[in-house]
Input
Amino acid sequence: MIRDIVIAGLVALMALVWLVQRTEQSGPDVVGVSATALLNAAPDVFRRVTGPEPLSFPADHGLHPGYRNEWWYFTGNLADDAGHRYGFQFTLFRFAVEPGERPDSDFAADAVWMAHLAVSDIEAGRFLSRERFARGALGLAGATADQWWLRDWTVERTGDGWRLRAQTAQVALDLKLEPEKPVVLQGDSGYSRKGPEPGNASRYYSITRLRTDGRIELDGRTTEVSGLAWLDREWGSSQLGEGIAGWDWFALQFDDGRDLMLYRLRTEEGTASRFSAGVLVQPDGSYRVLGRDDFRFDALRRWRDRLGVEWPVAWRVRLDSEEQDSEVLDVEVRPAFDAQRWYATVDYWEGAVEVIDSASRQSLGRGYLELSGYAGAQTEARRGIRVQ
Amino acid sequence: MLARLSRAFVYRHPLQVLLALVGIAAGVAVVTGVALLRGALVESLDAVSAELVGARALVVRHPSGRLDVDEYARLARRAGAPDLVPVLRVPVRVGGQRLELVGVDPFSGIRALTGTDGAGLAAALYDTSGDAPPVVLSRSTLDLLDTEIGAVIEIDAPDTRLRVVAAIQGRPGLDRRLLMDISRAQAMLSERGWVSELLAPPEAEAWLRANLDDRLLLTTASSQRASARQLTAGMRANLTAMSLLALATGLFVVYSVLSFLMVQRRRTFGLLRALGMTHATLARMLLGEVVLIAVFGALAGLVAGSLLSDLLLRLIAAPVAEVYGQLPPATTRPSLWGYAAIWFAALAAAIAVTVPVLREALQIPPGRMVRSFVVQVLPLRKLLPLAAALVAAGMLWLVLDARLVAALGGLFLSLAGIMVMIPMIGFGLVRALAQRTPTTLPGRALRLLETARGRLSPALAALSLALALAIGMGMMILGFRAAVGDWVTRLLQADMYVSLESRELGPAQVERLAALDGVEVLSSVRRTRLADGTELTAYDLPARAWAGFELLEGDSGRARAMFDAGTGVLVSEPLARRRQLRAGDTIELLAPDGPARLPVVAVFRDYSSEQGFVAVSSALYRRWFGDPAVDSVGLYLAPGVPPDQIGRRLDGMQLGGHAQWFTPGGIRRESLAVFDRTFRISWALAFLVGMIALVALTSALLAQGLERSREHATLRALGLSPARLFGLLTVQAAGLTGAALVTALPLAVLIHYALSFLVQPRAFGWSLPAGLPPIEPVIWVVPVALVLGTLTGLYPAWRIGRRPIIEHLRAGR
Output
């Protein structure tokens, strides 16, 4: 009798399982890419950056065909009259499609463009971010010496400066950015080596201080804001060498007029690659390129995001070169708030930070911090996608 | 002890228990199958925009179906523009299956879609590893096409090979779609310059209303799906009616099987009662058994129904695509709630039909072991009022309520009323037949049936209803088919019809066709949709073509004069019915430069569109829309010019696209082929209902055979050979089937007329010309039913024939 019950039960269970299986719907569709994966490989048909070349402006503000990737990168810290502070990031990425026969179509594209717009509402601890894509066709996205755009997100050149306009459903930016310092050529006159192979390099220049004024519209309320922004421009193919897991990148603007850029290329073992570098820019615009041995970082605190990934959001940064006359700096870099992480196609943390003197605990300035490659191991296993 | 008793019974009669299980399972299977099919025809029709952007996505279209790609680029770059998703949609065929090629831009505001291998859509569609352009399919489409990831498929029309690079799970709206990068799709079709539609998120509505060109139409994906749903409403209503009939028949099976099981155990029950078992305990035991059978039967029914639904979906997919221009999903999508609802309903229904059986069982007095117990037949005076009340209620509902549900519900009630009467008439027939040959074996066999009336009545009624349905529906379908054939023949007055594949004909091309040697005159057709969704067809009709309209209302001469002058319009019958328009009424049409009010001069017969349409003269259409293009042209040839000759010349002409030409005969054949495919599912369901009814008959005959076992044993003891007994029982089965058939025939004619004149107009908007019902279904069904019905007697005959006589004489089991 028991045997019969067991058999009948099993048959019924099988039927039930079969029925339940038929009702199953798809899980959420998530696609994520590691930023590192985007930058460490490129087919040979793409041009490589292999040595210094003279740059000329404004022509070099426009795009450089033939390279795998290129970006236009604004970050900045702003405040309104009432003292409310905001961080902002506007980035335009271009990923070239392999050259070859294109389909005979209005939509045939030579590149895919991605734009990231983020505003950190520091008082409210809100990180508003929006990602957009467009194919390089039908004039949907592009970059010339005078204008960089993805659909209606635009950056127009106005003399020496730019006007940035971009909006999402929640937030809109309309900012004028005027350089207070000349262009800084990173690395060797703009030739920024990032790996041992000849092509493991990018062309890299920055404008480390742009006086910024304009308006932020948040929740339907428009506020006049002003502050400082930073522009990074970079292009190349297969910049990153083998074995690079990610990077930690600092763009710090000190109240005394100095600006400091540092990046650590993190190896898969967690150490700093010898190609880690930086630059210290004086108030008068003169600058000194820094090598790996000129600085040290130590993570002070990690923040765990909702996917369980830990991001080192607070750091101690030291400049202690053995060279004579070189400056010594010992500061702490703290996030304006922790949750400034991009949950988008590319996984990274990019947010407004404060700079504090390690000894006196006095505020020394503000800046932006970018952390990449931390989500990689987990998310790649989970999602495993490459954008080609 | 109860459980052991039940178990012992089950083990002794596995076949009977199986029959009960099959009865429940079959009824539940048909209901489940149709319910899932209905769901597929509701949820996933035209759901591609919802899958690509979201359930409440907005859709922007141009009335011509082609939206200028520069218009898209301009809109996309305008300040505040939402994420627009350009989509190119083109029907294609792969291995005879109708599919849709959907070109999308994975870098637009499209929902993130991930393949089963985890790759994103962009990565998949930008896969450049092979020669053939990559496509992404839904998992079910992959199964439908019997292909796999990595395989190359060929599409018919542009003769192109595509490489399947990924599959997407659980997005039914993408079923029967080939997802491709829009640039590859455009290039493959050599169609630059336009897209089919733009999709946008729901929050973009205000922006779009403020920024869209007046000529572009904005709808929501949900309203688009709602209209797709509406298209199939009639079809779904008919399916539901069929499935409920199947369930009703299935419950008859349950009833007869249960009563049969009860009959077999009458002796046990009498014993148990004598031993002191109370009514309550007995009821508990019987209920427990019923619940157990129902639980397993219904579960099996759910499984079978799910499989059935996919088969039915296959049957229905082609007509849904051909008739409604909609692609259903590749598989049905059940929900746990849906399953649970059907399962519980089946359980409740099974318990409900057990009540009379239970009552019967509980009436068995303690100690009753020998004499059989005759099921009481309700007397005529009790039955007649019930039947009359049901028929009257049904008629009343039919007359007072003009909706489709009233037509179906009223028909149901009336049929229920008539069913009550069927056993009476049926057994009357059996009696009359028996009296004609009172001394022969068949006569005796039939007379014996009379004594088992109570037991056999439900089965007889079920069988009669199933046969009436099969025949009546067959009559309706054939009558309808003839009407459609006549209509197409009348409509197609030209000698041949010319169109370009998925493209319109411009005025220059039309002129070249008119200039062809042997062509006397042209007619043309242009279809469009007004802003409110009203279908508009513009006709340029020579005198000969006018005869193609069969006017149901309106004066032909006056109608033609006003139609040609552009001062009046014709409306098709379905539209007239939907909007309650009659000849002489005024209709408001949303022309591009403002609403126009025009008189309806006539209503004409049309079976081409359930939604119906307004016919206007092409002169009026051009005045409104300024559009000189036409969709197709009818060529009226000079006497003696064969269409083939013109056709050969057409093949050589460069008309700017692939020219297709058809003769009226070809179109008629194709239309009737589509018609036949459309009604395949009705035949299938009618067949299922018939099969279930036959199971009901088998179990009823078994029950009555066992009940009469003592009589049978007596007959055997008196010298009736086993072969003669076998013959006796077979005659009984045949006699019952015959009675069911005879009562079914008038009922079938009634069903035919009800379907043709009440259900069809309310479901689809069109009427059928009156006439005598076609006889063919009778010719097909009657012999099949007689043979199958007689066969159902074989098993009971075999069972009864092999039992030892003595035991039965003694016990009367």
About this structure: Chain A touches chain B through 51 residues (CB under 8 Å). Residues 152 and 166 of chain A are 7 Å apart (CA to CA). The radius of gyration of chain A is 23 Å.
